[in-house]
Design goal:
Helix content: 25-40%
Strand order of the largest sheet: 15-19-14-18-16-17
CATH superfamily of the largest domain: Dipeptide-binding Protein, Domain 3
Strand content: 15-25%
Number of strands: 22
Length: 509
Amino acid sequence: MKKVFACFLLLAATMTALCACKGGTKPEENLEGGAVVVGITQDLDSLDPHKAVAAGTREVLYNIFEGLVKPDKDGKLVPAVAESYEISEDGTTYTFVLREGVKFHNGETVTAADVVYSLNRCAGRLETSDPEVQVVPAFSVISDIAASKNAAGKDVITVTLSSPNTELIGFFTSNIIPKNYADQAKAPIGTGPFKFVSYKPMVELVMERFDDYYGQKAHLAKVTFSISESSDAAFLQLQAGSIDIFPYLTVDQAEQLEGKFTIEVGDMSLVQGLFLNNAVKPFDDVRVRKAMNYAIDKKELLTMLNGGYGTAIGSGMYATFGLYYDATLENAYPHDEAKAKELLAEAGYANGFTFTVKVPSNYVYHVQTAEVLANQLKKVGITMKIELIEWASWLSDVYKAHNCEATIIGLDSQLAPSDILKYYIGGSAKNFMNYKSDAFDAAYTKATATADTTKKVELYHELQKYLSDDAASVFLQSPSLMVAVNPKLAGYTFYPVYVQDMASVYFKD
């Protein structure tokens, strides 16, 4: 057996995250409490963490729930509900020693049975499965989850795989919940630094500090996530002083707040793209998809939307995956309108074509992206009609039913390179682009199984090149994240995953 820290040391070392803790880390003994309001522009699709689909929901629930492990700000996976963990040399056995005395928010102690239940639920291994549970595809290799005691009398969870997977540790951030509790979707109970208080759809979610938390306690006594119907509405509240933190600023908004709020800038750790349905005309023709890529000027996009911040990408992975990210693909499709027109003519669209892109209306950044792209595509004869839809409609029509020609969205990920590329596996319910490549699928299987770091890097570069060569979609950028923070606050921290960690935020002296 070997310590898993060694297994994922390279990934953790190469992941990057920006820390905006201007005031440093406030000692626990100086807790002052206080309450803050965080503005968000998307309602929560579920309070049950195993049913949540949206990144915007998970960024909130991160404060309430934890897994056996959790990410820190440097991209390392550190013990949480588990106090330690090991991976076998062949990558087929994961062993977790549970931390003693971890409490759920209802005061009950976490048991091995709770952990086994939670993992089986996430893996779709329960005898009676709930169709709303978002089964973790990577957990399909799990053949057994068993609880036992070690020599010290501590609870041990052993997860056995049917085939090697050295990246699975990144998925054990999956949240641990009580086994015999039926109201998770109404009154969620987790183990995180904050506990749930109340929720009003399209109004707010309120949480308060959990004083029985096993680790360092949150500094704030209360946090309210205020839900607005749009970024503009939230911005008005921000200017009026009723919101303390707002994490989705545009460049123009940030300029308006100069001198009034602290503006923190980090990476959003998302793949933003103009995702094309490869199964419908004209996007079933690779020449059309390539033409779309040549027609887009990513440099202009970043300048107009981000003030130059953000990272232009050329495939389905974002840059904070370090060595696994292939930076050479960023220039695979340089802006070339003549080349775009040439490819369109070859494909039989010399006069261009018209298509509709579905964009969730609550994400002003994606809406603005659509507006810029529409103007760029028009120059090569392509008319892109923008259809704004509600988030619930996007989830049902685009994500689940794959009913669209194209969409603009941002894809988030666990701290495993396989997770950000899972959307392209042939036949997967998550493959809303209907991309299909037998070569990609085969390389994906090899990449997740190999324990050799050099070979793993080669395979993930190969996977990204398949997506680039096939022009699976128009991969745009990993956007910057500009956050307005009340100048009385400090400790706001960026992570290499998409979360809003309120446990580190505190009021300055």
